[in-house]
């Protein structure tokens, strides 16, 4: 089944840990979780779900650890709430064994470890690459947002369910910094890459690296990207807009007296 394809073992128990008694039932019920996995809300979400939908065929049942359930719920429940779905009672974490018992533990980085990168938090923001329709439209967008930057994004890890993204510090061209200092931009954008992992995943479209022009707002202690354009040769309007930006005057600037 799609949810647990290539999970690492080939035989599973029926009935499973959610009391599904036939494979058609398992496939039907598990497919409803595929959109959540696509949101990449937690790197262990697939392991957690497959331990329940497709438990490995052993002499005894092995449940996911309570801490694994809690970690996945902490990151994924907010994403489900974005679409009006509560965390289901069948996944009540109190049902699962404590970590000192035999159970399936978390694999990803410990969120409480100060020496390692934390798991990206859930993002409700749906974002896709914008079509660079006209140079004027792009310029208007840059004017309307707090900041605009041309950046190169690198995918650090292409083997796990969730991907870590890094900003290439040598490829940051600040077009507009707004209320931020220019020196603050790279750090704030790296924070965005970590927090809005799903948004970045959508923008990257499966590529290992890419150059983009992104613009957005500064909200409290973080930046929120509203628009993203792929920097490609065919996007002539985008190239034209960026060239013109240096000498472009936004409407509010043009209205001021010199």
Concise synopsis of the structure shown:
By secondary structure, the protein is of the alpha+beta class.
Structural overview:
The chain is α+β, with helices and mostly antiparallel strands. It has 2 domains: 2-95, Frizzled cysteine-rich domain, CATH 1.10.2000.10; 135-251, OB fold (Dihydrolipoamide Acetyltransferase, E2P). 32% of the residues lie in helices and 14% in strands. It has helices at residues 23-31, 34-38, 45-53, 66-82, 135-144, 185-195, 197-204, 236-245, 251-254; strands at residues 147-155, 165-167, 173-176, 209-219, 222-230. Strands 1, 2, 3, 4 and 5 form a 5-stranded antiparallel beta sheet that branches. A hairpin with a 2-residue loop joins strand 4 and strand 5. It is elongated and about 70 Å long. Residues 110-118 and 254-258 have low confidence and may be disordered. GO terms for molecular function: Wnt-protein binding.
Strand fraction: 5-15%
**What's the CATH C level of the largest domain?**
Mainly Beta
The number of helical elements comes to: 9
Largest sheet: 5 strands, antiparallel
Number of domains: 2
Mean pLDDT: 85
- CATH architecture classification name of the largest domain: Beta Barrel
- Terminal CA distance reads 66 Å
Strand-pairing-aware structural class: alpha+beta
Helix content: 25-40%
Query: Can you tell me the residue ranges where pLDDT is under 50 for at least 5 consecutive residues?
Result: 110-118, 254-258
| SSE string | HHHHHEEEHHEEHH
Computed Rg: 22 Å
CATH fold naming of the largest domain: OB fold (Dihydrolipoamide Acetyltransferase, E2P)
DSSP E strands, number: 5
| Global geometry | elongated
